[in-house]
Every structure is written in structure tokens, then in C-alpha cells.
Amino acid sequence: MAETILRAPLKVGVVNREREATPETPTWNVVIVTTGIARRWFQDGLITAQDTLVVDEIHQTSAEMELCLALGKRARCRFIWLSATVDPSFYAQYLTSAEVLETRAFDPAKAAQVNVLAEQPLEFLNDRFIKTVMRERRGVAVFVPTRAEVEQIATELGDRWPNLATAFYHGGEPIRVIRPFLDGLVKRPFLLAMTAAGQSALNIRGLDTVVIYDARYTNVVERGKNVLTRAYLGANEILQMAGRVHGRVQGGEVYILSDRDLEFADLRPTAPEFQLAGDAERVAITCAAIGVDAAELDLPVPLDRRAYRESVAMLTERGLIDHGRLTTYGRDVEAMPVERPWGELLYHAEPSLVPLVAVASNIESLHRMTREERQLGGLIVPGSDHITAYNVYAEAVNKHGYLGEVYGLPRHLFRDEDIERWAEERGVLVKAIEDIALGAASVYRQLELPLPAKLPYGDRKTLEVFADLVAKIMPFDLVIDEQTADGREARVSRSSVCGSWGAIAGTLRYFADRFGVPRASIEGTQIPERAIRGYARRGRPQAVFERQRRREGLMVVRAVEYFGFTLDRDVEPLPSPFPEELADAARQALVQALLAGETPHPDQGKVRRALERFGHYWRRSGGQLSQARSEELSEQIAAQLARVRSWDEFIGARIVLDPDAAIPERERHRLDSLPSSVFLYGDRVPVDYDVEQGVGGIVRLRLKEGQARRLHPNDLPAFDRPVRYTVTRGKHEAVRASSLDELRSGLRTLKSAHRARLMRAGRRGRRRRR
Length: 770
Description:
Elements: H1 2-6, E1 12-15, E2 30-33, H2 35-43, E3 52-55, H3 63-74, E4 78-81, H4 89-94, E5 113-117, H5 121-124, H6 127-136, E6 139-143, H7 147-160, E7 165-169, H8 179-182, E8 190-194, E9 209-213, E10 216-222, E11 225-231, H9 235-242, E12 253-257, H10 280-290, H11 305-317, E13 321-322, E14 325-326, H12 328-334, H13 340-348, H14 354-360, H15 366-369, H16 385-400, E15 401-406, E16 409-414, H17 416-426, H18 430-447, H19 460-473, E17 477-480, E18 491-492, E19 503-512, E20 518-527, H20 529-535, E21 537-538, E22 542-547, E23 552-562, E24 565-573, H21 583-596, H22 604-620, H23 630-640, H24 647-652, H25 659-662, H26 665-672, E25 677-680, E26 683-692, E27 696-703, H27 705-710, E28 723-729, E29 732-737, H28 740-765
């Protein structure tokens, strides 16, 4: 492709964290880069309309990649994109592709035998199956979702079957651990357990059997945050994993372990699942770097506008953005090859803390760099996961590393046998250590400092200085007494070395529990109360409306605040007439109180009923009715309170909200005529209307469980907007789904859970009474 486009001899180069740009880079006409490098080049104007972007494995979405696609469209670049398993229709339209070439390398004579079984991995990998593998000398790959499951399968089967070559691979292991399998040096029979990290990039010689466990952990964007959620595999993942042997290998076998009614032959590639909507801060920084609003970028997925505005406000308050552009401080922080919070710490760190911050900024978490069973004696600094994780790396460097060079750039290198033995004893992942070495070297180059050959260990004194720096800058998420500033619960991670109480600064990670409810956990560093009090700020007086037992009305609040947390709060009645400096805030507080239905105003009841009608029409219009927008209603009330100067004037003011006057009769009649229920299987099913973030108007059917199990698409009337389903189950939690497939999946999960409860109840009932 490159030769056809360029019509010139190829000069190929690579730029990534390992191989930085050199004076020769501008002479290359083919440059292979990571998405992070590409984003920075877009920001610096180095990629223009004259360039062609070739995007390989485009189905492997990430926030960086999706942002690069939008930046490439803005720069009017030409795109060539490739994927083995994706529905091409979305990218064909989004990237305005002139032509889509679909090629197949499938040999029908080598179609695999596919079996779908409702079993667990170790239940399926029993003696009978392994004996067949040994007898037929097969090469087996097992795909499961977690590191722990991968290691358990390889270890247990390796111990039970010494003549079966077993190994495991996941994102925490270097590729060299399975290099003999890739190079064909391991003879069959063998079994290789892997996570999805090996589903597309690894070609294993001698592989003829694939076992796929139908489960994955994926990020689902909820209210602008990435929530780690357990889900079934998508069609793209199953096709990618099965494609290791299906149509490629004579006598191939594929086993899919699932409780779903899967028809492998009916699986087709689907549209990609995007991640960018959950990373509003990255979008905000990138947009500020190039001086545009996110609305000017044609992003592949709708951005959560509220989360984006909150990110811009937060970055502006922290001094990184001013009037939509990066400040000098913002550019210095953004230039750091680490995430924004660590970039801020690096900017402010004293020389004695640079080794700690430079290393810790490249550690995803203490949990991710260690195994479940770990031995970190002598390295743990109670109260700081950051320093403990840093100490783990420091010991690896000091005992088993040396200062070397890779592609002419300094880096910590390690003696393979020594580091692997040490990692096994400590319960540390070697790949994590190597990744930290790569990142730390990059940070030191950015700081223009020599990379040290040895690293000082962190201790209680280090914690005191580091905690003070974090308390002063506070670039991280903050949790106090296991609660966030907005009152949500956030538990300390089970693998953390921090205590449960007090303030912890670190990274919040969101995950869905077994009921699908988003939860939060945190790892980080504990901040002493004296440091928090020392850097807390007394806020300006604010006018608020409060309704409590002893008082009701406008109050003036003076608070001592620390990064969103209110440490102390003095409240007293707001004088009447209102002080000039608080008059606007007082009127705004009254507007919000009226909207919330909290005031004793004589017209409060009429306002509440009017708001209910406006909300009714807003939801039925799918969020399209501008007269019913909450902002519009707030402005109407604020206009009627514009001359109010005291509490008595507020009580005496007339407040009117009239849906009949604001919304034309024809429009009201049209919205009222939308069905409130549908007739289904002899019953009336309620239909609710709502507005969903990033989607717009939806209808929600409230179904009984029996109706939901019988539901077929042809039985539903046509709606003018997407349909959502809610199945109510008495005292049990409702099942919610956005598609019929998701609904059936949720109902099957219910059935399995109900059967398990019955079995447990049966066992309890059979216990002998004494």
C-alpha cells in the first residue's frame, strides 16, 4: 500500500516510548507510531491533510485511538483501515470510505467442529478431556477472562499431567514466556491458557483446539465514567478466538463454554464498542491543546457533555486551562509522558522526591503489578500503596538490575533468570517491572535528568514528605472515611496497604457488582488530617436555601473546604433585605428551591404541578421540546424574581409557569396522543417515556417476567425511538435491558440464580435435626 501511494523508495521508521524521534525522522516517508504519539503529533500540527493514516486492528478500540480518528478527520487526512472481525458499516460511514474491500481466507474443508457446552472451565478440562488431548496429541488454547483463572488452569493441569506442556499468558507477563510456543519449539500435546490479550496477535504453531469461556470484563460508560463490568463475550471476540483454528487447521475443534443459546454459525461481526465517552478529561486536555471545543470534533461516539464540562471546569480551576486553551503550566504538565495527576506532581516535586514520583507515575496500581499471593515483607510502607509499589520496583533495580541502553536510550535492564526468580518469590509480575522501567526512563528524559543506576527506598519519612506534596497539590481522586466529595461510597481496595478511615488520595476505579450496581474502590496514599487542615481554604460566604427542623429559608454559609470536601460549616440566617454582594446568589438559591418544591411560597403547589406537566412533555418529546428544558424553566422563574430584594418580597411575588401558554396546543395534543400502554399477550403493558444521555428519547416497557420470556420482536408495535425493557419481580431487583438479546441474557441469569437458591435451600432442608 505504501509503495502504491508514495511511488518512491520506502524509508520506514518507528516512534514510540522505546524509540524516540531523531533528526532523521522527518526524512522517513513511512512512520509506525503508537496512538499516544499520534495524538501528540496531531496536537503539534505535525500530521496534516497531506498524510495518509493506516489504522490496523481498528476493532481494538481505546480512548486514544478514537480521539486520533476524530483528529485525523479534522486534519482531513486520508484513512486506510483494517480489521479481521468488525462490521465495516460504521467505519465506512464515519471515515467516508470510498470503498470497502472484504476478503476471506477461510477454507471450508478446514471448518472446525464447534460445540457449545454449559460448563465451567475446570469442569470441562477434566480427566476425560485431557486424556483425549494426550491420546490425539492436540494443541489447546484456553481463553478465560482473568489473570487468576489463567494461572489456576495452567498450574492445576500442569501439576496433574506432567507430560502435558502447559503455560499461561496474560497482560502481566512478557511475551517471551510463551515464545517457545510461538516459534514451534513446544511439541504437542500442549495447553496454553490465555486472557483476551492473546486473542488476535498470537499465532501459535500446532494449535488445533480452542476452548472459549463466554465471559469478559469490559468498561461500560455510565455517567461519564468507565465501570468495569462482567459480561458475555461479543460476537467479534468469539469469532477472533475461534478463528485461531476455524477454517485454518485440519481437524480443528472449538468448545464454547456458555449458558447462552449460542449458534456459532449465526455469529456475525458487529460494530465496535467505544471507550472515549468515559474519558472526558483526556478529550478536554486535547481540545485545549489545539484550541477547539469538543463540539467541533466529529467523535466516533457521543461524548457525555456534562462530564466534559465538569472536566473543563476542573482543569480551569487547577490552572491548566484558561479561556479554552492550555496555560503555560498546562502545557508543561501535558508534555509529561504520564497521566495528568502525575504530571502535576512531577512539575512540583522537590529533587529528593523525583525518583519516587517518576517511578510511581508509571505504576498502574499495586494490585495490577502483583499476584494474588504476594510476599512483600520489608517493602511495605503502611499507609501508601504508591510508595510500597515504588519499593517493589526499587528492589528489582537495586538487586537484579543495571543501567543499560535500548535503541541508544538509557533504561533499567534486568538479568532474566534473576528477575524471574525474584518475581516468583515476591509474587510480582515481570511484565509490570519491565513496563515501569520503560516509562520511568521516558520521564527522566522529559525532565532532562540522568537515569539513576540505583534507587533509594521509601520509608515513613518519605511518606511524610510525599503525603505533604500530595495534600498541597491534590491532583488525585480523594476519599475521606470511604466517601467521595459528592457522597458516594468508595471502599479501600482489598489489596491496599492503607487503612479504611481518614483521607486517601489515589485513583478511583469503578466496577459493577454481581447485581450490576456500579461500585468504587481506591488505592493510594493516606493523607494526615493536619496536612488537610493546613491546606484547606475558607470559602466565600454563600447564600443557600435550607429546610430543616428548626429553620427554613435563606441562609448564609461560610465553609472551610478542601478539594470538594466541607470540613467545617457555619450557618446563620441571611439578613433581609439581602446584602448586595449576596443578592444574586440568594435569588438563584430561591430559583433552585422552587424547582425542588421546597419553599413555603403560596404558588409553590402550582409551580410543582406545572413542572410535572413540563417534564411529561419533555420526556414524550424525547428531549426535543425546548420550552420544557430545565434551563429554560429556571430562566423563566429567575426573570420573575429579578426585583426581589428580601424574603418578604419573595413571599409576595407572583410566580407563574404555564405549560398551556408555553407549548402550542397542537404540539401538546400530539404528545398526549402517544400511547401510554400497549396490548401484549392479553394484558396492558405500561409504556414510559424518558430521555437517555447520548441517545435521546426512548420508550421503556414495564413487563412481567412471563411476558418478557415470551416476547418476540414481531409482537411489538413500531415505536419512533429506541425501546428499553424493565422486568419487575416483586421484592427482587428489576431486570433492565436495552435490547431483546440483553433481556434474554438477564432472564437466563435470573433462572440460574433462582436454581442455585433452590439447591442451597434444598441442602439446608436435608440437614439432620438433632
